[in-house]
Amino acid sequence: MMLAPYASDPARSRGREYPMENGLARGERSPYQRDRDRIIHSIAFRRLRYKTQVFIAPDGDHYRVRLTHSLEVAQIARVIARLLGLDEDLTEGLALAHDIGHPPFGHAGEEALDAALHKAGGFDHNANTLRTLMRIDSPYCEHDGLNLTWEMLEGLAKHNGPVTNPNWALSELNAAYDLELGTHASLEAQVAALSDDIAYDNHDIDDGLRAGFLDMDELLAHPFLVANWSAVEQRYPGVARSRQLAELLRSQIGTMVNDLIAESRKRLVGVESVDEVRAAGRALIAFSSEMEEGERAFKRFMYEKLYYHPEQLETARRARAVLAELYAAYSQETVLMEEDWIDTMPRTEPERSRHIADYIAGMTDRYAITCHERIYGRVQEGLRNV
C-alpha cells in the first residue's frame, strides 16, 4: 500500500539509539515491523496477560485484561491507519506497547508506587513504558532495552501530546536519546492514542454490565449510546439482549472510527510531510467537536458509575495497601527480591528506591498477591470483586 505523504516512512526512520546489532538484518522486515515483533516477543508484553484493565485480578475468563485491551486497541488502530494511508506496523506497535508501563492493579498500583517514590521523583506509568522498553527489558547482548526506533519511542512518549514537564524517568531517557518532547508525535501515535479511547469506552461497557456494576436501562438511555441502541432495537427486534448489546458495541466503535477518519481527513488537507505534522501545533487526528463532547460526557458517566463504584474504590484501596507493604518489605529486606534484582541493587538514593519500584512495577496482579502472601503470611482479602 502506498503511504500518504504525511505518514511515517520506514525508509526514512531516524534509526535507533544503538546501531543495529552486529549489522545483522534478520529477514526482510521494515524497521517498524521489527519494532512490533520485538514488542510482541518481550517479557513485558507477555506480563500484560495478568495485569488489571478495569477489574483487579478477575476470576472470570471473559473480562478484559491489559493484554486483551492492547490487542483490541491495535485492531482498531490498524483499520484507521490503513484508511488514512499511514504506516500500519508503526501504528500497531504503538498500540500494543502503550500500556506496558502499567504496574499491577492498574491505576491503584500506580498511585501506590507514586506515593512510595514521593521522595525519589514519583512514578508515572507512561514514562515507565519507555523505561521498561529502553532499559529494563533487556534480551540482547549488545545493549540495554529493546532498541526500538526513534519513531516508536517518540510515539510512546508523546501519543497524548507534547510533554512539557517530564518526570525524572522520561527526562533521563530523553537526555540520552532526544525524543523532541516539545512537539506533537506522528499521526501513527495520534491514531494509537484515540484508538485506546475507542476501545475502552466500548469494552468497559461490556465488562461493567457483566460484573453488574452498570444499570442496563440507565446506560442505554445515555445520549452517547441512545441513537445506535434505538437503531439496533429496530433492526433486530426480538433478538436476545446479549446479542443486541454486542451489535451496539460494534455500531459504537464503527461510529467513532468513522467520525475520527472524517474529521482527521479535514485536518490533514494541505499537510505534505511528517515534519509538518510535528510542527502543526495541534493534534491532526481527532474526533469532531460533537463526538468529542459526547465522548467526554460518556467518560464522566463511566467514572461515576463504574470506575468510582464503591466496590471498585474499596478494592483499589486494598490493592494500594498490598503494593505499599511490598515496597516497605523490599526497602527493609532487599534479600526478599529475586536474585537478579538483588545483584543489581544500587547503593545510593534515589536510584535504590527506583530500582525497588521497577521490580514491583513489573509484577502481574497475581504475582504481587503471591509475593505479599509469602512475605506477610496472610492472604489479602477483597482483591477480586468479579
From TrEMBL:
CDD domains associated with the record: HDc
A matching Pfam family: HD_assoc
InterPro entries tied to this protein: dGTPase, dGTPase-like, dNTPase_2, HD/PDEase_dom, HD_domain, PHydrolase_assoc_dom
Region (Disordered): 1-32
Domain HD: 66-201
NCBIfam families assigned to the protein according to its UniProt record, in alphabetical order: dGTP_triPase, PRK01286.1-1, PRK01286.1-3
Protein name (record): Deoxyguanosinetriphosphate triphosphohydrolase-like protein
Species annotation: Novosphingobium organovorum
Taxonomic lineage: Bacteria, Pseudomonadati, Pseudomonadota, Alphaproteobacteria, Sphingomonadales
